[in-house]
Amino acid sequence: MLEGYKGKALEILSSIGADIGDRIVIIKPSISIEGILMPSYSLSNDIIVIKMDNGYNIGISVKDSKVALKEKKKVKTEKLNEGEIGKSEIKIISTGGTIVSSIEYDTGAVRPALTTEEIIRFMPEIKEIGKIDAEVLFSILSENMTPEHWITIANAIGKAFKDENIGVVVAHGTDTMSYTAAALAFSLKLPGPVVLVGSQRSSDRPSSDAAINLYSSVLLAKVGKFGEVVVNMHGESSDSYTLVHRGVKVRKMHTSRRDAFQSINDRPLAKVIWKDKKVEMLRSDYIPKKELNVDAK
Predict the structure, then answer these.
(1) Cα 126 versus chain centre, distance
(2) Which residues, 6 or more positions from 80, have their beta carbon under 8 angstroms from its beta carbon?
(3) Is 242 a catalytic residue?
(4) Which positions of the chain have pLDDT values less than 50?
(5) Would 152 be classed as within a structural domain?
(6) Are 195 and 157 in contact (CB under 8 A)?
(7) How far apart are the first and last CA of the chain?
(8) Is 98 one of the annotated active-site residues of the chain?
(9) Residue 106: which CATH number?
């Protein structure tokens, strides 16, 4: 179904047998532009929208153009190997935001990865860290997060540890992540790390911080020495490391910078050098691991 297309654009795409998600090339007199066919939300009858290889969408008029089908959409059916199935070590709980998301070419939307298989396909390297299990608790904008949602998250974290996971990663929108982190920190005594993580830029953008933030957070949940709630985000504008901030001392200080999260009136708890698979503790006064207690009333 060629969603949103009409008039001349629909006629041309139908004539070459193109569908949303197929790779096409649009040939102009002076340039050829290739990419993935996306749904159209243009009011014009002669605009074709494609996602270029650099990750950005562009609308192109079919006037004075030739359009050719390059490749039909490939359907991925990746499954976990038998050795990857079993009791998990790290639980990933998704609450919304762009951190664990992918492009759904049928609709053009960025949607959350819903299964463990999709999480691994998004970031295959996390298989090297340990066995994971993923759960979508809810999928909401972080500005719509309420105390009732905090209680639900806290109980889900408690269940994850009761299921013998050694660490938990909570994927969260960045706008109110620090509020959730503080609420969880005051309601949980923990036998392992709880790592809140987000991304400033969605996974379809070339400058996305999603993959590195997720990888380093899973690593931190696996090897972290502490039993407290933290936020793990980029520590600088490049991709060298992430910084680990205490849940009660962190704040988002910029709208779009990848290193927007900072510890306020405090030093970060740790640094994750993801390329070396190394967690470097920056201070020794971390909260030690304790017997689980969830007080989320």
Answers:
(1) 13
(2) 116, 117, 120
(3) no
(4) 75-80, 82-85, 105-107
(5) yes
(6) no
(7) 48
(8) yes
(9) 3.40.50.1170
Candidates 98, 116, 180, 242; catalytic one: 98
Alpha-carbon distance of 56 to 160, in angstroms, equals 37
Task: Say which of 91, 131, 252, 271 is annotated catalytic.
Answer: 252
- Is 95 annotated as catalytic? no
For the question of whether the overall pTM of this predicted structure is more than 0.85, the answer is: no
> CB neighbours of 30 closer than 8 A, spacing ≥ 6?
none
- Out of 19, 115, 159, 175, pick the active-site residue: 175
91, 95, 116, 174: the active-site residue: 174
pLDDT of residue 53: 81
Domain boundaries, position 268: 82-294
Q: Quick check: is 77 in a domain?
A: no
Q: What is the pLDDT of residues 211-270, one digit of tens each?
A: 899 999 999 999 999 999 999 999 998 889 999 999 999 999 998 898 999 999 999 999
- Whether 45 and 188 share a structural domain: no
- Do the domain assignments include residue 185? yes
Q: Does 136 lie in the same domain as 47? A: no
